[in-house]
Automatic annotation (TrEMBL), chain A:
The chain crosses the membrane at residues 12-34, 54-85, 129-153, 160-178, 208-229, 257-277, 297-320, 332-353. The lineage of its organism: Bacteria, Pseudomonadati, Pseudomonadota, Alphaproteobacteria, Hyphomicrobiales. It is found in: Cell membrane. The keyword Membrane applies. NCBIfam families: urea_trans_UrtC. Coiled coil: none annotated. It is a multi-pass membrane protein. This is Urea ABC transporter permease subunit UrtC. Pfam families: BPD_transp_2. InterPro entries: ABC_transp_permease (IPR001851), ABC_transptr_urea_perm_UrtC (IPR017778), LivM-like (IPR043428).
Automatic annotation (TrEMBL), chain B:
PROSITE patterns: ABC_TRANSPORTER_2. This is Urea ABC transporter ATP-binding protein UrtD. It comes from the Bacteria. Residues 11-251 form the ABC transporter domain. InterPro entries: AAA+_ATPase, ABC_AA/LPS_Transport, ABC_transporter-like_ATP-bd, ABC_transptr_urea_ATP-bd_UrtD, P-loop_NTPase. It comes from Mycoplana rhizolycopersici.
Length: 387, 251
């Protein structure tokens, strides 16, 4: 059962993409750790972390593609699931600091001591254990998505209304996490991390390992989503996207199909956030900013929605562009991003990968037609030659 | 009198009314479909024919009245997916197929198999399913288009594909809304043959405007107007009815 599911997930493009991503998981850390800093192929540690961050964004875009590209659910709140995963990891990292904080309190993180709190809030229990934090990384976003989706999909909220309430969701979380008394560090968020699983979080080796972990998570998620969308379940998702009422009248419980995709997608976004936080060293409420979720939509659209590979490429390209662009003209980045979105919508509505795929399909069709033509030409020509 | 028929009938509507913003789309509509029956429903635009199908398939809830399937299954309490699983298939007025799937995949999705999330996630095509799809492909004359995207089909072919999907669903009752609208004469004649063929193994309710097509079917006709039944009987009987001529044929 599982094997046939996995076998189905591999088509040529996916195999190549997974191979490339896993290749990167080996090569980039190797070039960082095994070459001297003056070696021409050396990848400096700050770049390893920067690329690692891109990979977590790619995973977030892939998660969005599952619901938006294949099921037509335009979530404008996916950054919230990412941020929740990030906070879960951040809480673990805070508790790893232990007595090494500025106030030297062995149990309470600095911001709690600063707020004069005497004991650890109940929802911080367990986060000193990695396995527990890792579980929360997927459970918390998954549960939120499940509850949110349960109500939204059952009451058949669709289209822009759904998009608007997902924005409202992330905005509400933004406001909540800004509050000091929520117990998540207020607007400063969680930072000053020391180590992860006992390894110094700043160390070169840890950075390389985090990069590799991000790449592996991306590759595994790509296999999982590919398996999902190529199964009968995935075909039904596309059916829901294209003709929801037809799917219903065929007897499928559309809300269950949406809910499953939405929850899995939120969990993937949570994993992305959890890998993001140790690589950037901070998580704060700004990650819930509604604009962040909209950026994810732009990456996905640029790369090509409904293609799985496209959003990965889109996230890496746009964020690479952002890093370069903001270094040169920081104040113009938002205009550039908006302009890019308009251009893509107008001239590449299928995104980069979607356009390439359409172009290849057309060429194949054309070539087949030409072959048919040639075969027919020969059949006609032969009797003439015999005369 | 209606009540006596309830236990034996396949579909039973009694006194069904529904209004939209004060406008009565259905006004105490009653009729009965027997197992194995092929029934034609005619009536002017806005008579409530599509609304009647919405009520039967759970898309719209009636304000009052009873709708029973197979005697005692109350359809007014169930939603679309449940009603479809009970064995009622529906063809929309505007052909509705999955455009970005192939003809084959459209039929695969329609096939009457387990419809849960996990069942579909781990579904594998069996020889039996394969044979069934082949059979339907030839019934709806689309065998040579199996690998083409539904989007590339002609209007008439899409109508047939949708009928094929309904067959795959193996319903006991098939509701077909204006199947020959926009078809050529040849396609219309073929469709009449196809529906008669289908009706051999299940009940079919066809809504249609095309009187020639209704004559081809040669079955009992119900004429609706303003949300209730105007006349019921053979096509000759109904088309000779004074009220039908005034309300529908004469216009
Ligand atoms: N969802 C709806 N909201 C408002 N009015 C509706 C709705 N559905 C149908 N109607 C109205 O009910 C009447 C019957 O429509 P319909 O059942 O589509 O007629 P028919 O299929 O016989 O042409 C029409 O006047 C239509 O405008
Ligand atoms: Mg109608």
């Amino acid at each position: 059962m599982i094997t046939s599911f996995l076998l189905k997930s591999f088509d040529r493009t996916i195999v190549i993409a997974v191979a490339i991503i896993l290749g990167l998981a080996l090569i980039v850390p190797a070039l960082n750790l095994l070459t001297a800093p003056d070696h021409p192929l050396h990848v400096p540690t700050y770049l390893v972390s920067l690329f690692g961050k891109y990979l977590t964004y790619a995973l977030l875009a892939l998660a969005l593609d599952l619901v938006w590209g294949f099921c037509g659910i335009l979530s404008l709140g996916h950054a919230a699931f990412f941020a929740l995963g990030g906070y879960a990891m951040g809480m673990y990292l805070m508790r790893q600091i232990g007595a090494r904080g500025s106030y030297g309190n062995p149990l309470l993180p600095d911001f709690m001591v600063f707020l004069n709190w005497k004991e650890l809030p109940w929802f911080w229990y367990g986060f000193d254990m990695f396995w527990f934090a890792a579980l929360m990384v997927v459970l918390v976003p998954g549960l939120l998505a499940f509850v949110f989706g349960w109500f939204a999909f059952r009451s058949r909220v669709n289209g822009v209304y759904l998009s608007i309430i997902t924005q409202a969701m992330t905005f509400a979380l933004l406001l909540a996490f800004f509050r000091n008394d929520m117990g998540f560090g207020g607007n400063n968020g969680l930072t000053d991390f020391k180590d992860i699983l006992g390894f110094n979080i700043q160390a070169q080796g840890t950075r390389a390992a985090l990069f590799a972990a991000s790449a592996v998570a991306l590759a595994l998620s790509l296999i999982l989503t590919s398996g999902m969308v190529r199964s009968k379940y995935g075909k039904i998702l596309v059916g829901v996207r294209d003709a929801e009422s037809r799917t219903r009248f065929l007897g499928y419980r559309v809300e269950h199909f949406k809910l499953f995709a939405f929850t899995v997608s939120a969990m993937m976004a949570g994993v992305a956030g959890a890998l993001y936080v140790p690589q950037v060293g901070i998580i704060n409420p700004g990650e819930f900013e509604p604009g962040n979720s909209i950026e994810v939509v732009i990456w996905t659209a640029v790369g090509g929605r409904g293609t799985l590979i496209g959003p990965i490429i889109g996230a890496i390209l746009v964020n690479g562009g952002k890093s370069i662009f903001t270094a040169a003209f920081p104040e113009f980045w938002l205009f550039a991003l908006g302009g890019l979105f308009v251009l893509v919508t107008l001239f590449l509505p299928k995104g980069i990968v979607g356009t390439v795929q359409a172009w290849r399909a057309k060429r194949k069709e054309y070539r087949k037609a030409a072959e048919d033509e040639a075969a027919r030409g020969q059949a006609v020509a032969e009797p003439v030659a015999a005369e | 009198m209606m009540n006596e028929k309830k236990p034996t009938s396949l579909l039973y509507l009694d006194g069904v009314s529904v209004s939209f913003d004060g406008f009565k789309a259905l006004n105490s509509l009653s009729f009965v479909i027997e197992p194995g029956e092929l029934r034609a429903i005619i009536g002017p635009n806005g008579a409530g024919k599509t609304t009647m199908m919405d009520i039967i398939t759970g898309k719209t809830r009636p304000d009052s009245g009873e709708v029973f399937f197979k005697g005692d299954i109350d359809l007014t309490r169930r939603d679309e997916a449940e009603i479809a699983q009970l064995g009622i298939g529906r063809k929309f007025q505007k052909p509705t197929v999955f455009e970005s799937h192939t003809v084959w995949d459209n039929l695969e999705l329609a096939l009457n198999r387990k419809r849960g999330v996990f069942a579909t996630l781990f579904y594998r095509m069996t020889l039996e399913d394969n044979a069934r799809i082949e059979e339907i492909l030839s019934t709806v004359r689309l065998s040579n288009r199996r690998n083409d995207f539904a989007a590339s089909l002609s209007h008439g072919q899409k109508q047939w594909l949708e009928i094929g999907m309904l067959l795959a669903q193996e319903p006991e009752l098939l509701l077909v809304d204006e199947p020959v609208a926009g078809m050529t004469d040849a396609e219309t004649a073929e469709t009449a043959i196809l529906l008669k063929e289908i009706a051999k193994t299940r009940s079919v309710v066809v809504v249609e405007h095309d009187m020639g097509f209704i004559r081809d079917l040669g079955v009992k006709v119900t004429c609706l107007a303003e949300g209730s039944v105007l006349a019921e009987g053979s096509i000759d009987f109904v088309s000779a009815d004074q009220k039908v001529i005034e309300n529908y044929l004469g216009r």
